[in-house]
Specification:
globular; transmembrane; 17 helices; ABC transporter involved in vitamin B12 uptake, BtuC; Urea ABC transporter permease subunit UrtB; 386 residues
Length: 386
């Protein structure tokens, strides 16, 4: 029983570590801009699929290279998710600041688009997107060099948006008919795909009656590295200082010359990149599918709320507690632990499934927030007092 409890605690901590990586980015974005990004889970999903693509590429290079693919996958997952997050902030969220309901609906729509994109993506779609981005964003970049950009920007967008979309669709249609690209099947499809861990991440470290899986130890080590990197970035770098200043008082930071729009874009890209790293970690725990992010996004939001918005220590504590409790209940470990006490054993057996464990954890979180609505470490400062 003790071995089962220790195994459950370790597995729960590793899941909490994944939640913490994702929650770090969400806590920064939510704390700085007050944006509830429902597409955060899909950014994790993109990181997981990036890992799958990198894995397939390194398989063709041979065994020595394949053993190191996970490090390249982490970097690319961060960059891909950060680029998508930056495009999301520049193209959608920037125009919805201060409008939480519209932001919520917009990011929810983006999450559905990304899910369907992964299911359907092929060469025709990729070529069409590249052509659209080159035309539309290229036109905006050219126009931005003019002195009267504020006066003509809306007209340029109104003209170039349908024009770029029409040309992209025409190019995609031409290629599909000429080179039969439309006949090619989607790259991923709706089914789940599996990521094979390198040999040195398989197996486990013997510890008494059970093993500590190397993959989960790697995830915990990766989480510690990410937390340390984010702490050093926020506390020791110039841009970290700007982010903390804008978080505390946006209007005063703007008056002091801090480029708040660039800070917003950088913060959103950083938070999205961390979601991509979390997706890479998720791919080591199981198969990856278009709905992978939906399994984690709600728990990630709960970590941010319970820990306290914008609080790094609170996010760490909340992620470990939520991940561990969720796993102990859902795996039936608590039911076995309370086996001598029949009423408690039956109670926890009823919740010993993944879905029911989430129900119980959410009920506990609601009860906790009734006592501490600001989370474990509530925000303090003039912006909160106001």
């Amino acid at each position: 029983m003790l071995a089962g409890l220790l195994d459950g605690l370790f597995s729960g901590i590793s899941i909490g570590a994944v939640l913490l990586i994702a929650a770090l980015g969400l806590a920064i974005v939510f704390g700085l801009m007050g944006v509830i990004n429902l597409a955060h889970g899909e950014l994790m999903m993109l990181g997981a699929y990036t890992t799958f693509v990198v894995q397939n590429g390194f398989k063709k290079l041979g065994e020595p290279w394949f053993e190191a693919y996970i490090f390249f996958a982490l970097i690319l997952a961060f960059l891909v998710a950060a680029a998508v997050g930056l495009a999301l902030e520049r193209g959608v969220i920037r125009y919805l600041y201060g409008r939480p309901l519209e932001t919520l609906l917009a990011t929810w729509g983006v999450s559905l688009i990304l899910q369907q994109f992964v299911r359907s993506v092929n060469w025709v779609i990729v070529v069409g997107l590249v052509v659209f981005c080159l035309l539309f964003f290229g036109a905006l970049w050219i126009v931005s060099r003019r002195s009267d950009i504020d006066r003509i920007r809306n007209w340029v967008v109104a003209v170039m948006l349908p024009l770029s979309a029409g040309i992209a669709i025409a190019v995609g249609s031409f290629l599909s008919k000429t080179y039969k690209l439309a006949a090619t099947k989607p790259w991923f499809g709706a089914q789940n795909v599996d990521v094979t861990a390198p040999k040195w991440l398989r197996g486990g470290l013997p510890l008494g009656a059970f093993q500590l899986p190397y993959a989960r130890l790697f995830i915990i080590g990766l989480t510690i590295l990410c937390v340390a990197a984010i702490y050093l970035f926020l506390q020791r770098s110039a841009w970290g200082l700007r982010i903390r200043a804008v978080t505390q008082n946006r209007s005063m930071s703007s008056c002091l010359g801090i480029p708040t729009q660039k800070v917003d874009a950088l913060t959103f890209a950083l938070g999205s990149g961390l979601a991509g790293v979390a997706g890479c970690a998720i791919s080591l725990l199981g198969s990856v599918g278009p709905n992978t992010g939906q399994n984690y996004v709600v728990d990630t939001f709960m970590v941010v709320v319970v820990g306290g918005v914008g609080k790094l220590v609170g996010s760490i504590v909340a992620a470990l507690v939520i991940g561990t409790v969720n796993y102990l209940i859902g795996s039936g470990t608590l039911a076995l632990l309370f086996l001598p006490v029949k009423p408690l054993a039956e109670f926890f057996t009823f919740f010993a499934t993944t879905s029911m464990a989430k129900v119980m954890v959410f009920a506990l979180i609601i009860a906790f927030l009734q006592v501490r609505p600001g989370g474990i470490f509530p925000q303090k400062g003039r912006s909160v007092d106001a």
